[in-house]
Design a protein that fits this description.
8% of the residues lie in helices and 15% in strands. With 716 residues, the chain is mainly beta. The chain starts with 13 loop residues before the first strand and ends with a strand.
């Protein structure tokens, strides 16, 4: 019926919120896609409400978008159409999931009402916050009038009080005294506002129209027959019609003359719905989900289709009929065209159009979109369709040609990759999502979760909103929400930070990688500091704690953060694999000293906590099994921090007694006995002997030869 406002005088109407509970999808948004986006998402976007009436009730449907923080509400007011809402008939509805649904009950049949809906939101309302509907007439659904059909053919409606032809009742068309037909149709019908508004079959001097109606069967005496055209008609429907698309009193202005001629109109246009234009449910259900009634409740099986396929699955995701039946849905020009199924793929106002459907062998197809191809070769598969990943190629999906009646072929992940084993390949998806190559992050870390709201999926938006997980909370993305737009950068994301400060607990610094480029060759260094080439001592440049001192000795990340401690961190072929994603960018500081060096770290793994100590680590020993504890971030006081001076092992005391320092026998390591000349020859689990004044040392036999101090001597 026509969405025009309504109210009733002396009425005790009641409004009932059909969704009384407050559903809050509390999807916490710590940061949004663009500056100011957070407020935009909390702001309510008021969509166009609809108001429909029955004989004593008015139904209100008020949809909206956004309002992520569930802060909106709705006020519904009503009065008789000549009133001004002064009667106090109003109801405020608490927040509810879109759309708000309300019933105004206890109305008087046959009266015209006005209804006003008002959206409220402290964050603001866009669109039409206040919407008013007029001349909403309460009328039995059996009556054929503008109030029951939603027709807008005449400015003030028709068949209603004050409208064209006056108010219709059952008596307008029916009489108990009718003879000769089974529907009790009057032999003469008359407009109730004669002579102001008259039916096409009436004249100013001749009131009433003679009607010929004997049967609903396929005979000349039926509801309507445009075959060949005509200037007048005595059929019950055609006697009154003057602005309809089909079956007018005078067909001269019609463009089509073959619309279901000599058929029972009530087959599609139900008397119980006031003979209104049929809804989807009138013929094949909405969605067509029942194979037994797929092709029509009135004419089942007429199209030849033998399966309802995935209709229900598409509707559940908010995909409207016209997405796949573009230009055909409802009263489209190719709808119900010769019992042929019309296919036409078009999404988002034509942003993505075209594709191929290989349909059932029992069905004939035509197409309503120029780039769409439909055949009846029997595969029942869709191909080159946006919804199934065609625009994302390469995408990582395992099946972008799903079968219409096989749900397994369109499972989550098959279109664009959405699992740890099958990750999307565009941008840096694999680095983030893949279980081996990447970090195995779930999609909802960075995207709205379509399982919570189906409208967030297949909507031409990437829906990037970082979750409240500590690894991404507070992040921002500079790109637009439109799918396949130029990549933007991520900022304020823990995963791309230096993780720890010196001293601990300070503000972090963040790298801002572009989604399409990632870190390139810099890898670790872009976040943690270091040279521009990934493999050139990655920790050189990380200034937190004792990292600079360790970098000076050539240590890399895997010496102390080993994913596989038993592997040798000094082997260049294994170094890459020891920084495994499972213990990287995971929200904690994982310290695991390689077994080769041994020891443990006492500090907390939580970033920002106080530093701990290293104990039992070879690097902080005298090389002979005597260990010193070292506090991370502390300043060690030279050689004595790890060694006795002189060392107590072997013949070190005897050499020290002769005032010989370390440089006499370890000259390649230190040239002055105080500073380390060659870091790679210190703390390397090797005794590197090189005499300042010449000579040689045989490691297997521990023998010094031709040394100025003595000829041949074995080290104790």
């Amino acid at each position: 019926m026509k969405p025009v406002g309504m109210k009733t005088p002396a009425m005790s109407g009641r409004v009932t919120n059909l969704f009384p509970s407050v559903f809050v999808f509390f999807f916490i948004c710590f940061a949004c896609l663009l500056p100011g986006m957070a407020h935009a998402i909390d702001t309510t976007e008021a969509l166009v409400a609809t108001v429909t009436a029955s004989n004593t009730q008015i139904q209100v449907l008020a949809p909206y978008n956004n309002d992520l923080n569930a802060g909106n509400s709705l006020t519904v007011e009503w009065d008789i159409d000549t009133g001004n809402y002064s009667s106090g008939w109003t109801q405020s509805l608490a927040h509810a999931v879109s759309p708000y649904r309300a019933s105004i009950t206890g109305l008087t049949e046959g009266l015209a009402y006005r209804v006003r809906v008002t959206f409220s939101d402290a964050d603001g309302v866009t669109g039409n916050a206040v919407q008013e509907f007029r001349n909403i007439v309460t009328m039995s659904s059996l009556i054929h009038a503008s109030a029951t059909t939603g027709s807008t053919k005449w400015p003030n409606g028709w068949g209603v009080p004050g409208g064209k032809y006056g108010a219709f009742t059952c008596d307008t068309c029916h009489t108990r005294d009718a003879t000769g037909n089974i529907k009790s149709i009057r032999a003469t019908i008359t407009s109730t506002s004669y002579p102001t508004d008259i039916f096409p079959c009436e004249t100013d001097t001749s009131r009433g129209c003679g009607i010929s109606f004997l049967t609903t069967r396929d005979t000349p005496g039926t509801y309507g027959d445009d075959n060949g055209g005509h200037l007048t008609s005595d059929r019950i429907c055609e006697s009154c019609h003057s602005l309809t698309s089909f079956h007018r009193y005078n067909t001269t202005g019609q463009t089509t003359l073959d619309h279901n001629n000599r058929q029972d109109c009530a087959g599609c246009h139900k008397h119980g719905d006031g003979y209104r234009i049929p809804t989807c449910n009138s013929c094949h259900g909405f969605p067509p989900s029942d194979n037994t009634t797929l092709a029509g409740f009135i004419y089942p099986g007429e199209t030849g289709s033998q399966t309802a396929g995935a209709h229900s699955a598409h509707i559940a995701k908010g995909i409207a009929c016209e997405i796949c039946h573009n230009g055909s849905s409802g009263s489209g020009p190719t709808h119900n065209s010769g019992k042929i199924v019309t296919i036409g793929f078009s999404l988002f106002d034509g942003a993505y159009s075209g594709g191929t459907y290989k349909g059932q062998t029992t069905v004939n197809y035509n197409t309503s979109e120029p780039n769409t191809v439909a055949t009846n070769t029997g595969e029942k598969t869709c191909n080159i369709i946006y919804c199934h990943g065609s625009s994302m190629t390469p995408n990582g999906g395992s099946n972008i040609t799903p079968a219409w009646d096989n749900p397994a072929t369109a499972a989550c992940g098959t279109c664009h990759g959405a699992t740890a084993d099958i990750a999307p390949t565009r941008g840096q998806h694999q680095r983030h999502s893949d279980s081996w190559y990447g970090y195995n992050y779930p999609c909802e870390y960075c995207h709205k979760n379509p399982s919570l709201d189906a409208s967030l999926h297949v909507n031409n938006k990437s829906e990037i909103i970082f979750s409240n997980d500590p690894k991404v909370a507070g992040g921002q993305y500079s790109g637009t929400p439109s799918v396949l737009d130029a990549y933007g950068t991520c900022t304020q994301v823990y995963c791309h930070s230096n993780v720890q400060t010196s001293p601990p607990g300070g503000p972090l610094t963040y790298a801002n990688p572009n989604w399409g480029v990632g870190f390139g060759d810099q890898a670790c260094n872009l976040c943690h500091g270091g040279p521009s080439v990934h493999f050139d001592v990655p920790i050189d440049g990380n200034t937190t704690g004792s990292h600079p001192k360790h970098a000076a000795f050539g240590y890399n990340c895997t010496h102390c953060h080993a994913a596989y401690p038993d592997w040798d961190p000094d082997d260049p072929w294994t170094t890459c694999y020891m920084c495994h994603p499972s213990i990287h960018a995971n929200g904690v500081i994982n310290v695991a000293v390689a077994t080769k060096y041994g020891g443990a770290y006492s500090g907390s793994p939580q970033p920002g906590d106080a530093y701990g100590d290293c104990a039992g680590v070879y690097c902080h020993s005298d090389g002979a099994g005597h260990f010193r504890n070292a506090a991370w971030g502390s300043s060690l006081s030279g050689c004595i921090s790890c060694h006795d001076m002189p060392p107590s092992s072997g013949a070190h005391p005897q050499h020290a007694a002769l005032s010989l320092n370390c440089s006499e026998c370890h000259n390649a390591t230190t040239t002055d006995g105080v500073t380390i000349t060659t870091p790679s020859m210190h703390i390397n689990i090797s005794v590197d002997v090189s005499f300042r004044q010449g000579g040689s040392y045989d490691k297997p036999t521990k023998t010094c030869s031709t040394v100025s101090c003595h000829v041949n001597r074995t080290w104790p």
